[in-house]
Amino acid sequence: MIRKRIILMTQGLLLLVFLAVGSYILSMFYEYANTTFKENSIWRARYAQSLVLAQLPVNPTESQAEEIVHNLGAELNLDLALLRNMPAKSVQDIRKEDALQVSSKIVNDNTKGKNIVVELPLPNTFGLRTEVSMQPVEEEYSRMRTSIILFFLVLMLLGAFLVGKLVAKFTAPLEELSNAVEKMGQGDLALRLESKDNDEYGVIAYAFNNLSERLTDQILEVERERRKLELILDNMDNAVAIIKADGSIVDCNKHFSEVFGKKVVLSKSTLAEAVVSNGLTDFMRRCLAGDKPMEINFTTMLAGNKKVFQVFGAPLTEAFQSVPTSVLTVFHDITALQAIYEKQADFVSNASHELATPLTTIRGFSETLLDEETGKDGTLRDKFLHIILDECSRMQALIKDLLQMAKLDSVEYRQSIEIETFSVAGTLENVYEKLLPQAKKRDLHLHVQYLAEPVLISANKDWLQQILVNLTENALKYTPEDGDIELSYACDDRFAVFTVHNTGEGINEEENKKIFERFYRVEKARTRRAGGTGLGLSIVKFIVEMFGGTIRVVSKPGQGVSFIFTIPRANGETLLR
């Protein structure tokens, strides 16, 4: 607080002044006391010198001088001592010396403390030494210092008290204003200052109250607009978010969190965390760099489902900024429209191609049979009719698979499929009995390996059988004569793992990546001889993933092909996808 700072500064200044004044008084007193005591000690030494000179005989001996000095010291209560080997002087010369020319010095003694020592000459080579203790001076100085400290301490306490009162009086309006500003910053706009004076504080109080009223009106207006905008955004069927240049999400509507299925913490969550898409991040950068609205379509996976969005981005420039710092993004879900478009395009393209081939064959051989010469040849006529029959069967199988794919593409149909718990062994036995005649007809060996313990899975029995039939029929088509086809299964804690393996040529890595695509065939010439619609494996993959499993292909050229897929075991909840 400003009051504390002013009080501390004032007390600091008073302390410095008191220290300076006290130190000066003490130093002056100490210097005066030392000078006075030194002069007094010199005059006492001169007086003792005069007494010694009066009692000394002419040409005294050392013992005579020693005795006189000792007796005189006891009589005057002075510490006198006889000095020897001094410069020889006569009594007349000694009496002529000025007292101001006498030198003295201060000697520190461990036992006696500070002493003033004065040395004076005596006749012949003798001298007189006086030593006076300075203890009285030191004691008086100590008493004086204590008195001054106590005096200044009392003055300082009194000054601090008076300064505190004065500062409190003059800073009270400033503190009131400071507290009011702090509360305003915390959102209390109802606070008003009262001032009856027309001084500077009165002017500030009036300006503060006026500012509070204007801010209150503006904030209420902004809050009404914000609430209105919030209601509009939360009731939109589009996801809306404001995203900064660093990818952090500044704000978003409720639909944004619902669509992307994650709890968005504003200013902490990033675009990469909420929406996994490198293309969308690049779109944001381009939108900011170009400083103009842009649109993009992007695809992502949300809760295991493919989602397609049309994204509109408009750069936003904050106040007092010259370049945009964030992007207003609107996510319009076009998944359904995109799915319909893709399915229609794929169906028209692939179905047209697949139907065109047998129709062309049927048309060509039919026109040939209408020729009179060809129609008379019974052998050739039968051959052409068998070809036409084969192409009709192929068209029938193609139409059957197309209808099956259409059913599986329907969400309503998938939701109507019943999930049940059943044993794997029974389904494998049915597939074996159904396809064994075809295997024997082609001189192939069909085997099924069963586990010792029964394995229960959660799926639809008919659709599981369809998976195994499609994979086994595919193996029958591409396995060379006298080859082997083996159906087996294993299990872990969560899944039953099925394997359909056949010997033969195998497929390369490039074909392995595309084998589950609709209407894709391995080596078209070889596929034409073997038959097939190109939809069987796509149907298999769709059904496996619908039950929550996975499927993959393991193959190398010349080593046959293994189709391995998983189905959840009957020890947990299975949801159709």
UniProtKB/TrEMBL annotation:
The keyword Transmembrane helix applies. It catalyses: ATP + protein L-histidine = ADP + protein N-phospho-L-histidine. It is an enzyme of class 2 (transferase). It holds the Pfam family HisKA. Residues 168-220 form the HAMP domain. GO terms for molecular function: phosphoprotein phosphatase activity; phosphorelay sensor kinase activity. Residues 225-261 form the PAS domain. Residues 212-239 form a coiled coil. InterPro entries: BphY/WalK/GraS-like, HAMP_dom, HATPase_C_sf, HATPase_dom, His_kinase_dom, HisK_dim/P_dom, HisK_dim/P_sf, PAS. Residues 350-571 form the Histidine kinase domain. The chain crosses the membrane at residues 12-30, 148-168. One of its GO terms (cellular component) is plasma membrane. PROSITE patterns: HAMP, HIS_KIN, PAS. Its EC number is 2.7.13.3. Keywords: Coiled coil, Kinase, Membrane, Phosphoprotein, Transferase, Transmembrane, Transmembrane helix, Two-component regulatory system. GO terms for biological process: cellular response to phosphate starvation. PANTHER family: PHOSPHATE REGULON SENSOR PROTEIN PHOR. This is histidine kinase. It comes from bioreactor metagenome.
